[in-house]
Amino acid sequence: MISDKLKLMKEKALESIESASDLTMIEMVKNQYLSKKGEISLLMGELRNLNVEERPAFGQMVNQLKLEVEQALYDKKALLEEEALFDALKNEKIDVTLPGVKLYQGSIHPLNQVIEDVEDFFIGLGYEVAEGPELENDHYNFEMMNLDKDHPARAMQDTFYTDETHLLRTHTSPVQARTMLDKKGSPLRIICPGKVYRRDDDDPTHSHQFMQIEGLVIDHHIQFANLKDVLLKLAQHLFGKDRVIRLRPSYFPFTEPSVEVDVSYVKKDGTIGYIEVLGAGQVHPNVLQMGGYDPSKFQGFAFGIGVERIAILKYRIDDIRHFYQNDLRFLDQFKGVNR
Asked: What's the number of CA atoms in the CB half-sphere (13 Å) around residue 140?
């Protein structure tokens, strides 16, 4: 009696599935038999009316019925979905001449373009790219750069201190100090790009934070001529092969002798002018010694250039603050710019 009842329900369910002509009817058949109050689900309630010996066999037959109905529903649904897709493709028309959807595509920030360009240039010369923390120890930021506790040059650079010994770095020179200690007296060639902070008021040419790239070379028999050669090549790479540089004596605590570097440009009247772009010099013996190098055996040169200054000159930007205001009208101008 029980098996006949299940067989009849199976035939009825399969017939309903086979006769379903769309997905809505399939869903109705599914609810009729497999929902919580569906006919197959309610069969389990009859277990309590059976003897203990009959219950396992009955439960197995109900589960088998449920599996067969589920499989039939799945197969029929897949068939109907495929038919619906073919009907849609047959009836729909696509105008291939319509313009496609234009997706907004970002670009590399102009400052990052400059950094990547300079990195590529120096990697080609055999330099390594070194990085370090922006929250720096006073020892690396000042003392290892020959700026002791009472040095007057600190007053122009001191930034935000988090405690008595840590501050936001004022240059990427502490990366040089850390690298010198890591090299343990071995020759090195590095550039150190990164964000730095100063006690500057924001105006069209100054910012309290900016990007800087410093370079450091330490080896045997390094001369000032090696520094000049690198600086000339860098200026011509950034601004054009026709550029020349001019060196003016200056003072930095961590280099001796020190120079300010100007690059040439053509004025509106056709004459040649110069504009300052970076500072450089030969590494001070005290800095070499603190970094683990014997000044009688090793010499070196260092330089530092502001990324914003390069970008301002290269792209003719009139205000440094444009780089930090996230104005897409400004940033979109640098899409596809040839570095």
From this structure: 22
Q: Tell me: the pLDDT tens digits for 13-44?
A: 888 989 988 888 989 988 888 888 888 888 77
209-219 β-sheet, strand order: 128-129, 188-197, 209-219, 299-306, 272-283, 255-266, 245-252
Q: Where are the alpha helices (DSSP H) in 142-239?
A: 173-183, 224-239
In whole angstroms, what is the distance from residue 191 CA to residue 123 CA? 9
- How many Cα atoms within 13 Å fall on the side-chain side of residue 117? 20
SS3 assignment, position 189: strand
Alpha-carbon torsion 308, 309, 311, 315, what sign?
positive
Cα(125)–Cα(335) distance, integer angstroms: 28
Please give the single-letter amino acid code of residue 231.
L
Q: Tell me the pairing of strands 245-252 and 135-137.
A: unpaired
pLDDT digits (tens, 9 = 90+) for 173-185: 999 999 999 999 9
Cβ–Cβ < 8 Å for 13, 33:
yes
| Residue whose structure tokens are 């390069």 | 310
The neighbour count for residue 310, using CB atoms within 10 Å, is 24
Burial, 224: exposed, middle or buried (Cβ in 10 Å; 0-12, 13-18, 19+)?
Answer: middle
DSSP, collapsed to helix, strand or coil, labels residue 176 as: helix
Fold of 110-334: BirA Bifunctional Protein; domain 2 (3.30.930)
Radius of gyration of the chain (CA): 38
pTM, full prediction: 0.67
Residues 6+ apart with CB under 8 A from 304: 171, 172, 173, 212, 213, 214, 215, 278, 279, 280
CA 143 to chain centre: 32
Residue extents of the structural domains in the chain: 2-91, 110-334
252's tokens: 């930095």
